[in-house]
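Shipment paperwork, digital attachment
Item: protein structure file
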Amino acid sequence: MKNNPPICPYCGERSVFTSSREVYSGRDFGPIYLCKCIPGWAYVGCHPGTVKPLGRLADKELRFWKKQAHAAFDPLWKGKHMKRGQAYGWLAEQLGIDKSECHIGMFDVKTCERVKFICLAKQNEIALRGQQMFTV
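Attachment content:
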């Protein structure tokens, strides 16, 4: 497998391929790319069985907002309101980006914030039609 560590968006240096044990108090969740340039470090996990990053390196704030974005977005397709591909197409349209660029793992803080509020509005729209209500 080719390993081309991503560049850290915070310092511009190449990240290091290492074990997630380094950031998760000894627990192993697979390999990560890590840069220790900032407090709390910047890191990203890899797709299972690969060295391909799941997204961009993220600091503590961005990791928080990625989780918030996924918590608001994922119920739209996991709850069977849309198929996964349809949900990403809908989200891309809402964000004004191409579907091929619509990947929460690659978004910045502001885009993750937008995703959360766009998806919560969609969840409320679904709820008003008499379906299940969601909150994040």
